[in-house]
């Protein structure tokens, strides 16, 4: 299984790079946190970066043998989470088993990821939301390319319609808080 950290977002609402952001109560930045959680479950972790944070993330993970920083592949650059997932599928000519985690879920636990890892074709659901950027599925570069060529860049559509992923329900929605502003209430955790 390959872990994919989606760290290439523009963080417009956040106002600074979410991947490189370190919460006041955490010892490492969000990208490292995600890698640390995926590493016990995955043979390799790919950090999907953007042009701005690639140098910092490449330096940060330079000594990690099972971590590689990747960037979007043409012709699907800067099209959201699917660009990062497409870049991950370009690393192999074979169907790839992917455990995907967006960088802005700092409280998702290894236990949650383990549940996803143990179910084929699934994504996380809480009582109030579906979390398509926390998912596990096997796909190929060709399958994803064919979908993207339809000009549909919605991760939800790819996960539910193409991959036929099922939701796995988690009761504790607090673990799935997705921070879009640094001023959010981090102190609650």
Helix fraction, binned, reads: 25-40%
Mean pLDDT: 90
Question: Runs with pLDDT <50, length 5+?
Answer: 185-189
Q: Describe the biggest sheet? A: 7 strands, mixed
Neighbour order of strands in the largest sheet? 3-2-1-4-6-5-7
What's the overall geometry? globular
CATH homologous superfamily placement: Spore Coat Polysaccharide Biosynthesis Protein SpsA, Chain A
Plain-language structure description:
Residues 3-161 form the MobA-like NTP transferase domain. One of its GO terms (molecular function) is GTP binding. This is Molybdopterin-guanine dinucleotide biosynthesis protein MobA. Pfam families: NTP_transf_3 (PF12804). The protein has a single domain (2-180), classed as Spore Coat Polysaccharide Biosynthesis Protein SpsA, Chain A. It has helices spanning 30-38, 54-60, 81-89, 110-117, 141-148, 155-162; strands at 2-7, 44-49, 67-71, 96-102, 122-126, 129-139, 166-169. A seven-stranded mixed β-sheet has the order 3-2-1-4-6-5-7, with helices on both faces. Mean pLDDT is 90; it is low at 185-189. It has 189 residues and is α/β, with parallel strands linked by helices. The chain is built from six helices and seven strands, in the order E-H-E-H-E-H-E-H-E-E-H-H-E. The chain is 26% helix and 23% strand.
Helix and strand layout, with pairings?
Blueprint: E1 2-7, H1 30-38, E2 44-49, H2 54-60, E3 67-71, H3 81-89, E4 96-102, H4 110-117, E5 122-126, E6 129-139, H5 141-148, H6 155-162, E7 166-169
Parallel strand pairs: 1-2, 1-4, 2-3, 5-7
Antiparallel strand pairs: 4-6, 5-6
